Structures are given as structure tokens and as C-alpha cells.
Amino acid sequence: MNEIIVAMRDICKSFPGVKALDNVSFELKSGEVMALLGENGAGKSTLMKVLSGVYKRDSGEMEIMSRTYGDLTPKQAQAAGVAIIHQELNMCRHLSVMENIFLGKEKTRRGLLSNVEMEAEAKRILDELKIDISPSQIVGDLTISKQQMVEIAKALSTNAKILIMDEPTSSLTAKEIEDLFRIIRTLKASGHGIVYISHRLDELQHIVDRVTIMRDGQFITSMNYADTNLNEIITHMVGREIKEKFPRVTYPKGKEVFSVKNLNAGRMVRDISFSLYEGEVVGFAGLVGAGRTETTRAIFGVDPKQSGQIFLGGKEITINRPEDAIRAGVVLAPEDRKKDGLCTKLSIRHNLSLPNLDLICDKLGIVNSKKETELCEKAISDLTVKTAGVDGDAGNLSGGNQQKVVVGKWLARDSKVVIFDEPTRGIDVAAKVEIYNIINELKRRGIAVMFVSSEMPEILGIADRIIVMCDGRITGELSPNEATQNEILVLATRFESKVEAIAQ
Ligand SMILES: Nc1ncnc2c1ncn2[C@@H]1O[C@H](COP(=O)(O)OP(=O)(O)OP(=O)(O)O)[C@@H](O)[C@H]1O
Ligand SMILES: [Mg+2]
Predict the structure, then answer these.
(1) Where is pLDDT greater, at 386 or 471?
(2) Atom 6, ligand 1: which residue's CA is nearest?
(3) Ligand 1, atom 25: nearest CA belongs to which residue?
(4) Residues in CB range of 170: below 8 A, 6 or more apart
(5) Domain that includes residue 296, residue range
(6) N or C, which end of the chain is more exposed by having fewer CB within 10 Å?
(7) pLDDT over 90 percentage in the chain
(8) Which ligand neighbours the alpha carbon of 427 most closely?
């Protein structure tokens, strides 16, 4: 235990226009959890992709389990004992758990697939991790956290000794995070080395032994977690001290701009009524799965509504599809950026200009490229998106910078209502403050903001009013000045049976 199992030395890696890794060194020991920290675009994912053979390094060398490697293919990395669970999950949703675990390394007998053998092996691994999933379940039917556990099982089926987890908790509930931490502790106890990438710095204390900090593609420092503190970590990450984590500004309450009355849509949006006022941020709190995302989708016209009314500026409006909403001035920055928020194969320019064609086209419908460039450059500089240029693929941006583009495309418009669904997911501390400042700017312009977030400190720190949802219903409203995390939790877990019991 505690011998060095990974040593990366002087690793360099450039992409056109960006030096993503600049002489980075990194060490991991067996039986430890190493947090790899840094701002969006610092190079964390790239470094781990080099270690797992996804990217070829330009120079530098690596030692894995005492063997030296220069160029490394994904297959060699796997054989050397490295497994990576990527920032965005990569499962085949229509295949079973077992098929996903053995994808590309199927067990065969006399040229035929040996399902019996694979099923037994999959079951053994899942049982060992005490994961309650059957090998025959279809992955697309599982929750994100269960899918992630299948990814872990898949990694272990290759006998990996080095497990890299890139932002594993960004979409998990508190209970699911507990389960993940239990699995991490089991793996640690059996001598695995784990690299843990996360922007949720408050969770590090539960599992982390050491931290390595990167900034702008460079190695900054490695420390024992016990010998440091969050302020020091943040200062190393950002290169300066961040004084105010929640820069809240308040404006006098304006007129009512937007209201939803008795909205019903599917099982998870039940009789939702609320109003938003000019220059007000209303935080929607609740546990993951409370129906908040479904509510935003129904309002925006992505999912059909069964009943209910929507009013904008006192007048009833009809939103049957997103286009109706955008025309009326109601926009949504969705939660799942890869699926709903971005066209990853298109350039940053096109992602930013697509929903704004009405602003940049001339009368004949031809794009005025000067206006387009202005719009894009303004969005990029307002949000400090880290990129070599607007013509690169949005999919090549680091996770957090992708999120900034999702938010950025709406800022060019003169909207009346902006709906944010988990806008700071996967975003680093400094960029979070930037997003809060953008929200403040929207407030200043008199725009009403619906702000869905599962991070309670953030809701308490940013919202002017808090609405709590549970199981598709609104269970209460709180003022952030008086509310505590506990009160939010009580409302967030008030399931219908309890509501009825209270009503009786
Ligand atoms: N395939 C690629 N093509 C071009 N540039 C890339 C590619 N992959 C990464 N980059 C660039 O390399 C830099 C480092 O990105 P990386 O994804 O490693 O950051 P990160 O630290 O993981 O950030 P985040 O916390 O946002 O996920 C960024 O500037 C990014 O735009
Ligand atoms: Mg990353």
C-alpha cells in the first residue's frame, strides 16, 4: 500500500491555439484518493485523458505500475490498469448493464457470445460493490447515478487498479453521493488509487487524502488534504483570493411580469402556480427528481401541457413549442448541456447565433456576419469563455466553458423571463461568481429569473425568494433571509402522503 502507481513527468499537450498541458507532473499512490482540482479549462480532463490513452501527449513520460510509457493507446492504458469514467457519461443506453460492462471485451465460447458467463461475472462485480442493479436491466432505464455505478463496475471488470472519476457527483442526489463515497472507500481499502475531479469543494473532506491543483495548463502544487484548507485551495486554483462567493444585489420589487397558474404536465408537474416579478430571482429548491426540470420544460414548450395558463405582462400567452416561448421573451438554459443545451458538433459561433438569427439576419434572411461576430465576441468576453476562437467546436470546450456558452446564447436577447436549470453544474468557484454576476445584471435590467438549483447554499445566497418542490408539487415558499437549509429540506421531502396527513 501507498506505493507510487502513477508518475507523469513533464507532460505537454497542445491543441490548435491552446497549450492545454504545459510540463505537468502528477503522482498517485495506491490506496489513496487524489483530488485533481482547477478552474474550468485548467487541463484536468486533458491530463487524465493522456493517462488513459485517449489523447497522445506531445512530450513527457509516464510510469504506470512501475512500467514506463511514452505513447499510450487506450488499450495499453487499460492493460496497464487505468480506467476512466468521463465527465459526460458514455453508455450505450439501449443495451443492458451486462452488455455495457463487457462492450468490446465480450466473453466468447467457440466463437459464440457466452451470456451465462458474462452475466455471472457482471453480477459478481455488482454484488461486490453492493450495487443493487440486475445485469439484464437496460441502461437507459436507470437513473444517472445507477448508470455511473455501471461505469464503475465496467472499469473494475478490466481489473483496473487506477480509477479516474471526472466530476462524478455533478448530477447526483445527496443519498446517491453517499453511495458513491461508500464505493470509493471500498476501492481505496482494497488498494486502488483513485483520481477524483470535482468542483464541489465541500465534499472533498469526506473522501480525499491529497489534492493536486492545476492552473492554466500548469501544475501548481500537491498537498495532503489535512495540511490545507478550502481558502488556500481556492487561492491556488484561481491565483487570487475570492472574497465574496455570493454577490447578491437587491432591487426594489417591480411589477409582476410572469405567472403560471395550475400547470399540469405529466406525472411530475402537478398543479404548479407561481409568479415572478421584475428584477427578482426566484430560486426553485428541491431534491433531484422533484419535478423542477419538468416544470421548466413544460413552461418552455418542450413537453406538452395538460392544463394550466401562462401570463406574461398580465396577458395570457400560448406556448406550444420553444419557438413560441423565445418569441414571447421567455428563455431556458437547460440542465443537460450535452443533450439539450448545445450542438456539440457545431462551432461556438453557431451555437451562440442559432437562437438569435432574428437579431443578426437581414430582411432577406441572410446572416450578417459582422453582426454575428459582434454577438459572439461579446458573449465570449462577457462570460470569459476560455477558447482559442469562436470557430472551434463547442464540444471541444472544457465542461464548464460549454455551460457558459449555454447561458451565453440567451444574454444577447432582450428577454423578459430567463429560466436557468442548474446553471452552475460543473462550474468552478470563480466562474460561479461570474454566473451570479450575470444574474445580477439581468436583475438590473428588470428581467425576472427562475433559478433551479439543488445546491442549497447557492439558493440561499442568490435567490430573493425560494419556492420548494417535492414530487411534482410546490410544497412551500421561504424567504432566504429567514430560511435555513433544514427548513428547505423539510419542504423538499414533504411527499404527498405526508401533505395529506397534515391536512387531515
Ligand atoms: N479536443 C480538444 N480540441 C481542442 N481543444 C481542446 C480539446 N480538449 C480540450 N481542449 C482545450 O484544452 C483546455 C483544457 O481543457 P480541459 O477539458 O482539460 O479542462 P478541465 O480542467 O477539465 O475543465 P472543466 O473543469 O471545465 O471540465 C481548454 O482550453 C480546452 O478548450
Ligand atoms: Mg473537465
Answers:
(1) 471
(2) 396
(3) 40
(4) 198, 199, 200, 425, 426
(5) 256-329+414-503
(6) C
(7) 58
(8) 1
| Cα of 178 from ligand 2 centre, angstroms | 22
- Which cell numbers in the block locate residue 385? 469563455
The grid coordinates of residue 74 equal 487506450
End-to-end CA distance of the chain: 59
What pLDDT is stored for residue 1 in this prediction?
65
- Which of 398, 402, 427 to mutate for ligand 1's pocket (most ligand atoms within 8 Å of CB)? 398
- Span 349-408, pLDDT tens digits: 999 999 899 889 998 889 999 999 999 998 888 878 888 888 999 988 887 788 889 888
CA of 366 to the centre of ligand 1 (A): 33
Ligand 1 centroid from CA 27, angstroms: 21
Q: Phi/psi class of residue 129: alpha, beta or left (left: φ > 0; alpha: ψ in -120 to 50)?
A: alpha
Q: How confident is the model at residue 497 (pLDDT cuts 50, 70, 90)?
A: low
Q: Answer with the one of 204, 238, 272 that is the final residue of a domain.
A: 238
Q: Which atom of ligand 1 is nearest to the CA of 16?
A: 4
| pLDDT at res. 143 | 81
Tracing cell 495540511 back to the chain, one arrives at 227
Question: Ligand 1 pocket: which residues have CB below 6 Å?
Answer: 15, 18, 20, 38, 40-46, 87, 386-387, 396-401
Question: Which domain-ending residue is among 177, 211, 238?
Answer: 238
Shared domain check, 184 and 309? no
CB 166 within 8 A of CB 45: yes
- The residue nearest atom 24 of ligand 1, judged by CA position, is 40
* Whether 15 contacts 21, CB under 8 Å: no
DSSP E strand boundaries for 130-192: 162-166
Tally of domains in the chain: 2
Atom 27 of ligand 1: nearest residue by CA position:
399
